[in-house]
């Protein structure tokens, strides 16, 4: 009987090593997923029969853990992240308490009641023009923006921070720039378009456009044909256009044709009973339009009329406070 050649033996050995490596990678990913579930960075949604998570859900959870641990926010299961997960948990505190379903500051046990530290004055801007950066309390702070993003995930924004809104309440607030690189805080509005898969963020005289968490080439761009500092934005699936709101008026935008309805119209002419001077707006996964102002929100029916019993408390109904 002929003995196998050295070349064949080497190939077999290499295949075994590769197979073990692939299995190990799969085991590491499963280990990371179990960790995120155990410590509240991922929660099994009530509205889905499947317990499988989307890539975006896992990426957001990984970024939250990495941010809380002082690691680069890659959103990937790298060795530094896995090593941190394997550290003894005794005495360590996570930003999310699954038992109470209340969010806490990243690295803090309770929401801070002390005055926030103000940013130092920059040579190019007076100190009065700078807003202090503090971690928001979703139960108390008004929204800057809210949107139904890709994979039907609801993102709420305040200051420099963003958090996800789920059936359980809210996920840990994290820096906006940790998810969307290059995006500033204190946004005016945010909206995701299922039509194109693009997400738009508005601030001042500029608009940022992202696919997923990656900024599209050439952005940010200046806003044209609409006023600066809009109040809110939403995507309306009926006509597949983006609505932009400011003060008592709204504009419609066809993003594929880059066409704006040049003449603004009064909010009250289309959205019956809805408030003006909004904080935020969105069309949610149930197809309903929601307007947010201060600590309250309004829900509109299919005829775009405010439904009976509204407004209601945003903190109680959306943030599960």
What does this structure look like?
The chain has 6 helices and 21 strands. With 321 residues, it is an alpha+beta fold. It has 2 domains: 10-42 and 52-86, Orthogonal Bundle (Muramoyl-pentapeptide Carboxypeptidase, domain 1); 145-319, Hemopexin-like domain (Hemopexin, 4 Propeller). It is globular and about 60 Å long.
How many separate helices? 6
Overall number of domains = 2
Residues in helices, as a percent range: 10-25%
Shape: globular
Low-confidence stretches: 6-24, 46-50, 95-131
Name of the CATH superfamily of the largest domain: Hemopexin-like domain
Indicate the CATH architecture of the largest domain.
4 Propeller
Sketch the topology as an H/E string, one letter per element. Answer: HHHEEEEEEEHEEEEEEEEEEHEEEEH
Q: Which percent band covers the strand fraction?
A: 25-35%
Oligomer: single chain
Organism: Micrurus lemniscatus lemniscatus
GO molecular function: metalloendopeptidase activity; zinc ion binding
InterPro entries: Hemopexin-like_dom, Hemopexin-like_dom_sf, Hemopexin-like_repeat, Hemopexin_CS, Pept_M10A, Peptidoglycan-bd-like, PGBD-like_sf, PGBDSf
Cofactor: Ca(2+)
């Amino acid at each position: 009987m002929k003995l196998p050649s050295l070349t064949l033996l080497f190939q077999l050995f290499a295949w075994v090593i590769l197979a073990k490596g692939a299995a190990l990678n799969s085991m590491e990913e499963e280990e990371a997923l179990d960790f995120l579930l155990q410590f509240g960075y991922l929660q099994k949604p009530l509205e889905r029969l499947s317990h499988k998570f989307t890539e975006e859900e896992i990426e957001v959870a990984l970024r939250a853990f990495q941010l809380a641990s002082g690691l680069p926010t890659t959103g990937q299961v790298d060795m530094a992240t896995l090593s941190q997960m394997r550290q003894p948990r005794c005495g360590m505190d996570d930003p999310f308490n699954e038992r109470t379903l209340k969010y806490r500051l990243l690295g803090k046990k309770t929401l801070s009641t002390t005055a926030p530290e103000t940013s130092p004055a920059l040579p190019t801007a007076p100190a009065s023009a700078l807003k202090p950066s503090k971690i928001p309390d979703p139960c108390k702070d008004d929204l800057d923006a809210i949107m139904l993003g890709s994979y039907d995930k609801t993102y709420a924004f305040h200051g420099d921070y963003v958090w996800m809104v789920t059936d359980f309440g809210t996920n840990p607030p994290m820096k906006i720039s940790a998810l969307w690189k290059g995006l500033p805080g204190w946004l005016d509005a945010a909206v995701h378009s299922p039509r194109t898969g693009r997400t738009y963020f508005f601030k001042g005289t500029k608009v940022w456009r992202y696919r997923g968490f990656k900024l599209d080439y050439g952005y940010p761009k200046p806003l044209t044909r609409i006023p600066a500092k809009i109040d809110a934005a939403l995507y309306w699936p009926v006509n597949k256009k983006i609505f932009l709101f400011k003060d008592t008026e709204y504009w419609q935008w066809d993003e594929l044709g880059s066409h704006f309805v040049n003449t603004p119209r009064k909010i009250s002419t289309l959205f019956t009973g809805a408030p003006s001077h909004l904080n935020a707006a969105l069309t949610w996964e149930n197809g309903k339009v929601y307007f947010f102002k201060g600590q309250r929100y309004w829900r509109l029916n299919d005829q775009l009329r405010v439904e009976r019993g509204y407004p209601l408390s945003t903190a109680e109904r959306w943030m599960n406070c």
